[in-house]
Write a structure and sequence with these properties.
440 residues, Aspartate Aminotransferase, domain 1, alpha/beta, 16 strands, Aspartate Aminotransferase, domain 2
Length: 440
């Protein structure tokens, strides 16, 4: 049986109103969506309402949301802290272009969590990573940056490079820099040097080849968009050593990771700059830079400008302040325990049905990696790209969607504070039914 085509046909049957909306919307809205990330095969479904951990589309299909807005909806929907905070915040005027004291309070709290003293606020993660790289380049007067193959740091030109695998990158001792799409000049993307995560020798090679020319390395604490690939301890140790010896700024990109949940997962590495995003604001748009006094000083002396007319607007800053007061270590531990429950249950099911899959978790996030028969546990994006089973990835996402469970493409999920044991158990039971089906 062609399971994938069956699930696609079932999806079409269940989403006829969305299909009509999509066909109509194409006349005015590119691909019927507001972002390329919202495009799915054969067409997107359109949301009518959201509450708790549920999304309801215009065909009245109800989904348990493990997608979480690409992992940032820590509170689910209609959470009391978000509703009450917003209700109080909008009683006051929106302040744009002027500082408020809440920004000082928020910065104190973030300093305590992340161990960096100085903070500045933008409007998105993309803006924040752009400004972080500019800071590093200005500080060292160097033009090159390093990013990890497969890493995602927003969509500005300098990092919109080697986000996905490419067959032209077969030479793993000299990974070519390749823009993700047209419109990025060679003069820009050639300044982005690509390395493999967990490849110490190549890290040494690049930093030696471009000695005294590299401003920074931007890196996620875990590599996402390819399941979850964790950074090995020896790679982290060497990264820390090489960057210190060569005066290379370490930028830790935590935009897609939920606040304190993952701040402890990076072991010995002490980043010079940390980038945060909308996950710390309950999904409201924000970009945040935390940095050492060393980097803050080049903003103080106006060597670099960190500007934006709506930077640090009062509504979002006040929201962050309320959220940081609300979240406790016990809440975060509960999220991790629910992740662990999924991890243990999925592993048991994988073993029971002899499925070619690996489950990984980190904080409140988890993923499944379905692999081909010729198997190698991925240590880097190239492993993932070569060994992933595209059909199984697509099938699992569509299967879950048709049974009322929403996860991300590439089989990634996130747990919010409103997910209960019943929601988790539903996810686990559907996974077992899925494995039983494909085993036949």
């Amino acid at each position: 049986m062609d399971y994938l085509n069956y699930e696609i046909e079932l999806y079409i049957k269940n989403t006829q109103k969305s299909k009509i909306q999509y066909e109509s919307g194409n006349k005015y809205l590119i691909n019927g969506v507001t972002s390329c990330y919202q495009t799915i095969d054969p067409y997107p479904f359109y949301i009518k309402s959201a509450s708790n951990v549920y999304l309801t589309d215009i065909d009245n299909n109800k989904y348990i949301d493990f997608h979480g807005g690409f992992g940032v909806a820590l509170f689910g929907y209609d959470h009391s802290i978000i509703k009450e905070s917003f209700a109080n915040i909008i009683k006051t005027p929106l302040i744009v272009g002027f500082p408020i004291t809440d920004a000082i309070d928020v910065s104190k709290k973030l300093s305590k969590i992340y161990g960096l003293p100085m903070w500045r606020y933008m409007n998105s993660g993309t803006e924040a990573t752009l400004d972080a790289i500019r800071l590093a380049r200005a500080h060292y007067n160097r033009k090159y940056i390093i990013k990890i193959e497969g890493g995602y740091h927003g969509h500005h030109d300098g990092v919109w490079v080697n986000v996905a695998g490419n067959n032209s990158n077969l030479n793993r001792t000299n990974i070519e820099s390749i823009p993700f799409c047209d419109g990025i000049p060679n003069d820009i993307f050639s300044l982005t040097l690509i390395i493999e995560v967990n490849n110490i020798e190549y890290l040494k090679h690049i930093t030696t080849l471009y000695k005294n020319e590299i401003a920074c390395i931007i890196i996620e604490p875990v590599l996402l968009n390819c399941g979850i690939i964790k950074l090995e301890q020896d790679f982290l140790d060497e990264l820390h050593k090489i960057c210190n010896e060569n005066k290379i700024c370490i930028i830790a990109d935590l935009v897609k990771l939920n606040t304190q949940v993952l701040s402890k997962h990076w072991n010995c590495v002490k980043p010079d700059i940390i980038v945060l995003g909308k996950s710390i604001a309950g999904g409201f748009s924000i970009g945040v830079l935390g940095m050492s006094h060393e980097y803050a000083s080049i903003v103080n002396n106006k060597k670099v400008q960190l500007c934006g007319t709506i930077n640090g607007n009062s509504y979002v800053i006040k929201m962050i302040n309320n959220i940081l007061d609300f979240i406790t270590d016990d809440m975060l531990l509960e999220l991790e325990n629910k992740s662990l429950n999924i991890y243990n249950s999925f592993n048991r099911i994988i073993k029971k049905y002899n499925i070619n899959a690996i489950v990984e978790i980190c904080g409140n996030k988890g993923s499944l990696f379905f692999y081909k028969a010729e198997y190698k546990k991925p240590k880097n994006y190239n492993d993932y790209y070569n060994y992933k089973c595209d059909i199984m990835e697509a099938l699992f996402v569509k299967y879950m969607l048709n049974r009322g469970i929403l996860i991300q493409v590439r089989d990634e999920w996130s747990i919010s504070l409103q997910h209960t044991d019943d929601h988790i158990n539903k996810f686990i039971s559907e996974f077992e039914l899925f494995c039983k089906m494909i085993q036949k």
